[in-house]
Specification:
Distance between the termini of chain B: 57 Å
Largest sheet of chain B: none
Structural class of chain A: mainly alpha
Largest interface: A-B, 73 and 94 residues
Strand content of chain B: under 5%
Order of helices and strands of chain A: HHH
Oligomer: heterodimer
Number of strands of chain B: 0
Number of strands of chain A: 0
Radius of gyration of chain B: 28 Å
Structural class of chain B: mainly alpha
Shape of chain B: extended
Largest sheet of chain A: none
Number of helices of chain A: 3
Strand content of chain A: under 5%
Helix content of chain B: 55-70%
Radius of gyration of chain A: 17 Å
Number of helices of chain B: 9
Order of helices and strands of chain B: HHHHHHHHH
Helix content of chain A: over 70%
Distance between the termini of chain A: 51 Å
Chain lengths: 99, 229
């Protein structure tokens, strides 16, 4: 398969993830959609690494996975804290920082 | 053969992504994402990224998704707390933005003028993307990013523990554990010596075990309600 096909799949997954972030209101599902977008970026990175025959893209992808794990860690901690304080689990309701 | 595998994995990945976005129950969303990640690992394998595919399955589909499942089980049926659904206009606008983004990305990829984009990729030596090659890079050229990433993980773990702590965060210091508390065990917390009325037993412990149990359970109860409140 040519590299272009992989990039097309990556673009499609990224768009689906971005649409999901906009549509859904449950912060858990928004985190899942962020994972989708990060994974689409990973697919593009690895496709380009294959295109150039250079493994440094793999290192980049692994670093993205580490950062995604950190993001999940903090995000889920926030959601658990929200749940404990009986705040609504809904990003539309959490707008106090907007002033 | 590679074409067939690509289309199976690619369609699976896109279907998993659609399921993640579309399913109402967050638990099913997580399961759809696991399916998506497994299909993506197959795509990585087709691109000769063996180590990244293995890391994807073990770290992502294994560890991170377990974390998600636990939090979904903990937060549970919070769907009822949601207010009225997203308005159809908002939904349409979101879809339009996503479509626009896809078209834009397609233009970027197709119009990039990269000659090799239509090829199967550069020729590579045996061992491309193998754990040995990746390890060589990680501990050689990319040692500093590797160490920084490990620090980032440590900071995130500490931050998550702080965030998900009991109500009040760090300001409430009523139950701060000092090193001394670890040495000095409170009485009545159950050692063999206490059970048989030995030298560690508190006063009246041997005659009134029920009372001791009672206080222990009530303190446990307050702790639990505190955690939930």
């Amino acid at each position: 398969m040519s590299i272009g096909w992989y990039l097309a799949v990556s673009a499609l997954i990224f768009s689906i993830g971005a649409g999901g972030v906009l549509v859904r209101r449950n912060p858990l599902v928004i985190l899942l959609c962020l994972e989708l977008m990060l994974n689409a970026a990973n697919l593009a990175l690895i496709a380009f690494a294959r295109m150039h025959g250079n493994e440094e893209g793999h290192i980049f992808a692994i670093t993205v996975m580490v950062v995604a794990a950190c993001e999940v860690c903090i995000g889920l901690g926030l959601i658990v804290a929200m749940y404990r304080r009986r705040l609504p689990i809904d990003v539309d309701e959490m707008r106090e920082l907007q002033g | 053969m590679a074409e067939v595998l690509f289309f199976i994995a690619g369609i699976g990945a896109v279907a998993g992504a659609v399921g993640t976005v579309g399913l109402r129950n967050p638990f099913y969303s997580v399961l759809a994402l696991v399916f998506h990640l497994l299909c993506l690992a197959a795509l990585f394998l087709l691109l000769n990224a063996e180590f990244v595919a293995a890391a994807q399955v073990v770290v992502y589909a294994g560890a991170v998704m377990v974390l998600y499942v636990f939090v979904v089980a903990y937060v549970g049926g919070s769907q009822a707390q949601l207010g009225p659904a997203v308005s159809p206009r908002m939904r349409l606008a979101s879809g339009a933005v996503a479509l626009f983004l896809f078209i834009e990305l397609a233009i970027v990829f197709l119009g990039s003028g990269l000659k090799a984009i239509d090829s199967e990729g550069a020729p590579y030596e045996a061992g491309f993307g193998s754990p040995a090659a990746i390890g060589d890079l990680l501990l050689g050229d990319f040692l500093v990013p590797f160490e920084i990433a490990s620090f980032l993980l440590l900071i995130a773990a500490v931050g998550a523990v702080t965030l998900a702590r009991r109500r009040g965060g760090l300001a409430e210091d009523s139950d701060v554990v000092t090193p001394l508390d670890l040495v000095r065990r409170p009485t009545g917390t159950g050692t063999m010596a206490e059970a048989v009325g030995g030298r560690g037993a508190p006063h009246g412990a041997g005659t009134d075990p029920a009372g001791r149990d009672d206080t222990a359970s009530t303190s446990g109860d307050t702790r639990e309600t505190d955690g939930e409140a």
